[in-house]
Write a structure and sequence with these properties.
The complex is a heterodimer of chains A (424) and B (112). Chain A is mainly alpha-helical and 424 residues long. Helix content of chain A is 70%, strand content 1%. Chain B has 112 residues and is α+β, with helices and mostly antiparallel strands. Helix content of chain B is 20%, strand content 37%. In chain B, strands 2-5-1-6 form a four-stranded antiparallel sheet, covered by helices on one side. In chain B, strand 3 and strand 4 form a beta hairpin. The chains are: A mainly alpha (424), B alpha+beta (112).
């Protein structure tokens, strides 16, 4: 009898708790690993190669330290603020320290532990993206304090607005994988931080070229692959939505890369490797909010626009406005997130022939959906900008924001961490 | 004895080494250096921002030879290093007072 029970326990349908879908669960487990891989080491390498050799470790260190801190903040408070309660603007404290998440608890038909972990990897990459705005000059202590508060004050609430049952989600905002939640918040925060901290010494007269393009391109490749989990996983199921999200993600990345490459080739005379990989990231960020809603032909248009618009945004912010958003986070992620969120409202529609998406919600037209998308974009920009500014002003008297001029000159690898990236 | 220092384009290093071996030079020291002269620098393009790079990578050759080798050494270097374009480099010649081979203690001509 005991043997029979043991055998029964080994049979697949009894292994699974009631309501859990094994296929969906295994895909989100995989996606979670892919999204973490985007930060560690994808983004770390992408950013690391773009700074000067004296600051390479500081960037890698910030990415990894933020991965640790964001995970802890998400566990203690962030997840609860984002994904609990009925509030329009903020969750409650019922899931502090993942309270109530046990082996058997579900979110939809996947374990809630998995959903919370999947979302944790998003909470890791978003503040890590902001590093690019203040790279090569922000104090390490300030980076840690800023990232902690920013996650609680900006990231968690906006996540709640859009995905946690908050007001933007209720309004019908289309943001599949984080155009507003991740890319607009990160891009705007990076821009505000760059303005508040001021430019790196010598900007813009002194050249500050990337020190290791090989590293940057390696990281970009990891980001492209990892993004399959970011967008494909956001379907929270192993189904047609996930497959279509992954397909359009790939199409957009490929199109934006090639668009950027040719655009630069025509405009400046040479196709550059950095231009191509920047196009990849622009294409990926731009398709993110649209990924579960649009079709492949729509993705082609979105990728093309991502290449053209973000290309000009980079030049506009750095060379016209002379804002030292050092690694171009706002023009690539922020602008990409903005146009992607808006374009989702167009290309989700089923009335565009070959360019149709999966259809708008009942009762919505392209123009009414665009109105909602616009509200989502504007509210996220304004809230993020104001909150980020206040956070920086609050931590300024506590830790200071910038390293001293001397330390900046020497490089913050040696002055902040007493290590060198290279000993050649 | 003469001490020859040559600043050359990096890619011709192997050719120069061969040409010098052919005229009997038995040892050279090479350093990777940066500098500028009439060639000026070049521009690099990163995300639409053009940077003027003033210092170009060059190699510096240092060779100790006997005085009678000088002409053949200069012509050996010149023959492979000359492209006729700005940036081929320069050869500097100075008098060499003393040479010591550390292992044996031999000096001057014997130590070359």
């Amino acid at each position: 009898m005991k043997k029979l029970l043991a055998l029964l326990a080994l049979m697949p349908f009894t292994v699974l708790a009631e309501g859990i879908d094994g296929a969906n669960t295994s895909w989100i487990l995989t996606s979670t690993a892919l999204v973490l891989f985007m930060t560690l080491p994808g983004l770390a390498l992408f950013y690391g190669g773009l700074v000067r050799s004296k600051n390479i470790l500081s960037v890698l260190m910030q990415c990894f330290a933020i991965a640790g801190i964001a995970s802890i903040v998400w566990l203690i408070l962030g997840y609860s603020l984002a994904f609990s309660g009925e509030g329009a603007y903020l969750g409650d404290f019922s899931k502090l320290l993942f309270a109530g998440i046990s082996e058997g608890s579900l979110s939809g038909d996947i374990p809630e532990s998995l959903f919370a972990l999947f979302q944790m990897t998003f909470a890791v990459i978003t503040p890590a993206l902001i590093i690019g705005g203040f790279a090569e000059r922000m104090k390490f202590s300030a980076v840690l304090l800023f990232s902690t508060i920013w996650l609680i004050v900006v990231y968690s609430p906006v996540t709640h607005w859009v995905w946690g049952g908050g007001w933007l989600g209720q309004m019908g905002l289309l943001d599949f994988a984080g155009g507003t939640v991740v890319h607009i918040t990160a891009g705007v925060a990076a821009l505000v931080a760059a303005i508040v901290l001021g430019p790196r010494k010598g900007f813009p007269q002194k050249p500050m070229p990337p020190h290791n393009m090989t590293m940057t391109i390696t990281g970009a490749g990891m980001l492209w692959v990892g993004w399959f989990g970011f967008n494909g996983g956001s379907a929270l199921a192993a189904n047609g939505d996930a497959a279509m999200a992954m397909l359009v993600t790939h199409i957009s990345a490929a199109t934006a890369a090639i668009t950027w490459m040719f655009y630069e080739w025509v405009k400046f005379g040479k196709p550059t490797a950095l231009g191509m990989v920047t196009g990849i990231i622009a294409g990926l960020g731009t398709i993110t909010p649209a990924s579960g809603f649009v079709g492949p032909a729509g993705a082609l248009v979105i990728g093309f626009l991502a290449g053209v618009v973000c290309f000009n945004a980079v030049i506009f912010v750095k060379q016209k406005l002379k804002i030292d958003d050092s690694l171009d986070v706002f023009p690539v992620h922020g602008v990409g997130g903005i146009i992607g969120t808006l374009l989702a409202g167009i290309f989700a529609a089923s009335s565009l022939g070959i360019f149709s998406g999966q259809g708008l919600a009942e009762g919505m037209t392209i123009s009414s959906q665009l109105g909602v998308q616009f509200v989502g974009v504007i509210s996220t920009i304004i809230y993020t900008a104001v909150a980020t500014f206040i956070i920086l002003k609050i931590i300024e008297p506590i830790t200071g924001l910038r390293v001293s001029d001397d330390e900046e000159q020497q490089g913050i690898d040696i002055t902040s961490h007493e290590e060198k990236g290279y000993d050649l | 004895m003469k001490f020859v220092t040559a600043i050359l384009r990096p890619h011709i290093l192997d050719d120069v080494r061969e040409a010098l071996s052919d005229v009997g030079v038995s040892g050279i020291t090479v350093t990777e250096v940066k500098g500028f002269g009439r060639q000026k620098g070049h521009t690099e393009l990163y995300r639409g921002a053009e940077y003027q790079i003033d210092f170009l990578p060059k190699i510096k050759l240092e060779i100790a030879i006997s005085s009678d080798q000088l002409d053949s050494v200069i012509s050996a270097i010149s023959s492979v290093a000359s492209s006729g374009k700005v940036g081929d480099g320069k050869i500097f010649v100075t008098n060499l007072e003393k040479v010591v081979r550390i292992r044996t203690g031999e000096t001057d001509q014997d130590a070359l």
